[in-house]
């Protein structure tokens, strides 16, 4: 007779001390757990990658089940910038401004070949990767990427958010990175 498996995944408890009715862990782990399961993405979508993102948010793939139910269209209320599609050089200052208006901590996903490297558009008017104007945490390849790939990129961001130290944003390396992008 086969064993019946539950329809849900059991998450392992983080490192810490436990006793009956008590569990203690580090503040980094607790804040990481809360952050990774309540990410508010801001979609900056152009072209065909935006259409694939719409499919990702639809009922069949449902990105909301990973804690991204609430899309934010205000940079001041978002912590994940999802740049999808072709970005013209005239749009680069806007992407940079949107990134600067987001509150800390903030993360960026470049979805699709065009956002990551300019894609097939090697022309004077197309930005050859958004990493020229904002720091990118995760790249999702594809032209356009399938919804499964976008979900995989989002899960990678969740891993990064959950394991990120609270002090990383104040490190000298991070400050140097921001200076490179002309971000205060």
Instruction: Round the Cα radius of gyration to an integer and report it.
Output: 18 Å
What CATH architecture label applies?
Answer: 3-Layer(aba) Sandwich
The fold-level CATH name is Rossmann fold
The rough form would be described as globular
Helix content: 25-40%
- Count of all domains: 1
Spans of at least 5 consecutive residues with low confidence: none
SSE layout and pairings?
Blueprint: E1 17-19, E2 22-24, H1 27-36, E3 41-45, H2 47-57, E4 80-84, H3 92-101, E5 107-111, H4 113-117, E6 138-140, H5 147-163, H6 172-180
Parallel strand pairs: 3-4, 4-5, 5-6
Antiparallel strand pairs: 1-2
Helix pairs in contact: 1-5, 2-5
Keywords:
184 residues; four-stranded parallel sheet; 6 helices
Description:
This protein is α/β, with parallel strands linked by helices and 184 residues long. It has one domain (41-160, 170-180): Rossmann fold (3-Layer(aba) Sandwich), CATH 3.40.50. It has 6 helices and 6 strands, in the order E-E-H-E-H-E-H-E-H-E-H-H. The protein has helices at residues 27-36, 47-57, 92-101, 113-117, 147-163, 172-180; strands at residues 17-19, 22-24, 41-45, 80-84, 107-111, 138-140. It is globular. The protein starts with 16 loop residues before the first strand and ends with a helix.
């Amino acid at each position: 007779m086969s064993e019946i498996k539950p329809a849900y995944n059991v998450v392992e408890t983080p490192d810490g001390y436990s006793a009956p009715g008590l569990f203690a862990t580090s503040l980094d782990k607790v804040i990481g757990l809360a952050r990774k399961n309540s990410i508010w993405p801001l979609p900056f979508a152009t072209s065909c990658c935006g259409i694939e993102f719409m499919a990702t948010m639809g009922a069949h793939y449902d990105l909301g089940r990973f804690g991204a139910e609430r899309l934010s269209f205000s940079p001041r209320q978002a912590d994940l910038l999802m740049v999808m599609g072709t970005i013209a050089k005239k749009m680069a200052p806007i992407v940079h401004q949107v990134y600067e208006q987001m509150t800390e901590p903030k993360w960026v996903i470049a979805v699709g070949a065009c956002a990551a490297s300019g894609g097939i558009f090697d022309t004077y008017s197309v930005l050859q990767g958004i990493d020229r104007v904002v720091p990118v945490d995760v790249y999702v390849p594809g032209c356009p990427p399938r919804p499964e790939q976008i979900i995989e990129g989002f899960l990678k961001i969740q891993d990064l958010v959950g394991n990120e130290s609270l002090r990383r944003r104040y490190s000298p390396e991070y400050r140097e990175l921001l200076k490179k992008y002309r971000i205060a």
